[in-house]
Write a structure and sequence with these properties.
alpha/beta
Length: about 110
């Protein structure tokens, strides 16, 4: 049985980083990944100039609230880029009882 893995990270539209890389690699590594995107960027931040940045932290609470109504759990969490706003939301949701007993992997 595949271990369920939650990837909490940004999605860069161009550049081989973030969710666009983590999702297929971790899937191929034998995990059953789900994603919780923290932000949408036009490109990654390394050398592509001034990128656009859309903060998804206001959606995180809605996503986690929905997840709490369905039988969904994770045995592992992979943390990539969170940003200050998303980190606050995730910590707040954990304090409110979003339950999982994962191992953490930091990108």
């Amino acid at each position: 049985m595949l271990q369920k893995l939650l990837i909490i990270q940004d999605l860069s539209c161009a550049g081989q980083v973030s969710l666009s890389s983590a999702l297929p690699i971790l899937g191929a590594a034998g995990f059953q990944p789900a994603v919780l995107p923290t932000a949408l960027l036009s490109t990654h931040t390394g050398g592509w100039g001034k990128n656009s940045f859309y903060d998804l932290s206001t959606e995180l609470t809605k996503i986690i609230t929905h997840w709490s109504t369905i039988p969904l759990s994770f045995s592992n969490v992979y943390l990539g880029y969170l940003g200050e706003s998303a980190l606050s939301v995730i910590l707040d949701q954990l304090n409110k009882g979003f339950e999982f007993q994962p191992s953490f992997y930091l990108a």
